[in-house]
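Q: Here's a chain of 515 amino acids. Please give me its 3D structure as tokens.
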Amino acid sequence: MRKIANSLVVASVLALAAAQAPAAAQDFPPTVAVGIDVDAGTLDPRLARDTAAYRAVNLIYDGLVELTGELQPVPGLAESWENPEPTVWTFKLRSGVKFHDGEPLTAEDVVFTYETILDPAFNAQYRTLFTPIESIEAVDDTTVKFTLSEPYAPLLSYLDMGIVPKHLVERGADIGMNPVGTGPMKMKSWTRGSEIVLEANQDYWGGKPRVETLRFVIIANATARAQAFEAGNLDVIQAPLEPQDVVRLNEDERFGRSLGAGITLTYFHINTKDPLLSDPRVRNAIGHLIDYDTILSEIYSGVDAKATSVLLPSFWAYTDAIRQPEFDPEAAVAKLNELGWTDTNGDGILDKDGQKFHLVLSTHSEDSARVQTVEYLQAVFESVGIETELRVTDWPTFSTNYVHKGEHQISLLGWLNIVDPDRLLFAQLRTGGSSNWGGYSSPEVDRHLDLGRSLSDRTERAEAYQNAAEIIAEELPYIGLSYPGFQLYYNKELGELNHDPRSYVRNLVMPAAAN
């Protein structure tokens, strides 16, 4: 049996908080403005799918566990847990925790939260992260028992999911627009497209927040957001930022900064259901057209590191032995010619059986570096005979109405909050995965991803993910572009801040003694 002992956990959490939390300031601003790039779609943690929502719900709600800056699980609403059998986990809830409306948190709220996530009809984006959960039981008001269908190594890393109030949801309350959690901050107001304003939960079980009011200010243009920060209109900004702004801010001693590795992948998502792109040999040829060096040095100003596969260097599963195709236009043309794509009409466009090789590259307008990247790649693709058009729209249209519906061909976007290799690969690239918008299917990849979930030994898990990544690097449903670094800039009146690789700001809100 494995058990997290309360005294040891509390000691470790306090030590961690002391190391990570901001130093106390003489006159801490009562209101702190944090610049963000997009508005939240919903503030229901079960349905959140964007950076704004992730940051806000992390303050409004609590999970059974919290993840440290090093992505280690520590107690949240669960003060301790036991793992008496490989497929059984029992969590002991803190006593006296209340939702923002004053109602007590009970084990029934935990059961309700996860049962709704697991309901396919609810359409939770991350449902597949929890499908190994066979049943959830409220043993009593403060004890929850999870029974799994098989051992599931990443489970604790995913149990930071915010717990929602069963009593409100069952009455029909819209917690997506009017969220009610147990977290350190409460909803005050939300002006769509402008700002989300939170106020301190003075009765928070983890201690009184040191921020009275926190404003998430939505400024879509990254350079405008950086300029607002430099002008003093914002107190905190963080990635995503334009590369040229990162270079400038790094040299400005007026501001505090915390720089480090991110847990993010910027990548090209290829729709394998598209008739033109269904052949992995065609996708492999296209892989030779990604000019990493020019894109990352000229467009990203050297801020991001070149991606070599879908495994992040911050992963324990990473190996640089797995490599995607290198930039080699001649190899791309040769491979396409072998597949029958040639310029039969002499017009400079490859064709086959009367069909032109025509591709649509897409991304969202809020990220100018991504826009410049697809514009540059349009020229590269056309130089080898691929007729290429661009589709650039706002984020909601691009993501929800285009990519998520599988209507794209090749899109440039990114994954955030990758706390485990499973988080990046299972829902996205396993057959039938809830985020497998490109319809990729490989029985061998499926087998390795299933194995990576079920093994407890980290070395064996790493081998499973490396085997999957090797196939993906050849068949290319995803082409990794870069491993973005993470940047946090802040008003020095806030003390010293260390960034959370997930881009959360709880360490800003809570003092060192919290938790």
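Q: Can you summarize the key feature?
A: The chain has 16 helices and 22 strands.
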